[in-house]
Specification:
Length: 255
């Protein structure tokens, strides 16, 4: 893939800002609105911010790790950047679309690249009814929360909540409980990526719940619907020797 106009974006930390200066001197750069590729310098959180910021343009993004974990990014190097971009392999992500209705009747919409999470707001456990494609599958889940994760997000919060790691291209989403109390042994389900997942908050006045799409939070929700948005495609670029599919596969064999 050939790119001629590169824009650089960097997180606020010192390492990312130094990298921004060095790469700018070495390769120049154009404003993001003129670029045909964006190089993001930071960690996974900054990569998510960059994807969200440019989601309307759906421009390819190549990340280099100047943060901590860097699961969604490539190894940082100032050498041969244009060659790396040309050799890079593309992974297309489709975000989740969240529609959340609050107690006052307002409807909020947001997109999530990693996951949509419902979380209790107070010391009281949440009570949530779960439907799949309009059919109630779990009448009452008593829990700290529940989430729907994409394959790209399955190694993030979903994994911390003991959800399954999903290979890219598997065509499924993870539905994972967070500290479920009843049913005590219910850990979640794998769903078709075409499924519409519905959540109804029970006893919302006593047990308020928030809904979070990546970093967009909606408080005091009563109903939430989550589905994959196939009309939006986000292209991440990875070095062939360490692509995202390989990372997700390798993650399943870590001790």
């Amino acid at each position: 893939m050939k790119f001629s106009k590169v824009a650089f974006a960097a997180a606020d930390n010192d390492a990312a800002q130094r990298a921004l200066v060095h790469l700018g001197h070495a390769y120049g750069g154009v404003p993001p609105e003129q670029a045909d590729v964006i190089v993001a310098l930071g960690g996974d959180g900054f990569m998510l911010e960059t994807l969200h910021r440019h989601i309307d343009r759906q421009i390819p993004i190549y990340g280099m790790n100047r943060g901590s974990v860097g699961f969604l990014l490539n190894v940082y190097s100032e050498s041969d950047l244009m060659d790396r971009l040309e050799r890079a392999e593309t992974v297309r992500l489709h975000p989740l679309s969240m529609q959340a209705e609050t107690r006052d009747g307002q409807v909020h919409r947001a997109l999530a690249i990693n996951e949509v999470s419902l979380l209790r707001e107070t010391r009281q456990a949440a009570k949530i009814r779960i439907s799949i494609d309009g059919r109630v599958r779990l009448e009452e889940l008593i829990c700290d929360g529940v989430l729907v994760a994409t394959p790209a997000g399955s190694t993030a919060y979903n994994l911390s909540a003991h959800g399954p790691i999903i290979p890219m291209g598997a065509g499924v989403l993870a539905l994972t409980s967070i500290s479920a109390f009843r049913p005590r042994r219910w850990r979640g389900a794998l769903l078709s990526h075409k499924a519409a997942v519905g959540f109804e908050v029970l006893e919302g006045n006593k047990r308020p719940v928030s809904a979070v799409a990546d970093y967009t939070e909606v408080r005091d929700v009563v109903r939430v619907e989550v589905r994959e948005d196939r009309d939006i495609g986000l292209d991440l670029l990875f070095d062939p020797e360490h692509n995202l599919e390989e990372r997700i596969l390798a993650e399943q064999f870590l001790p």
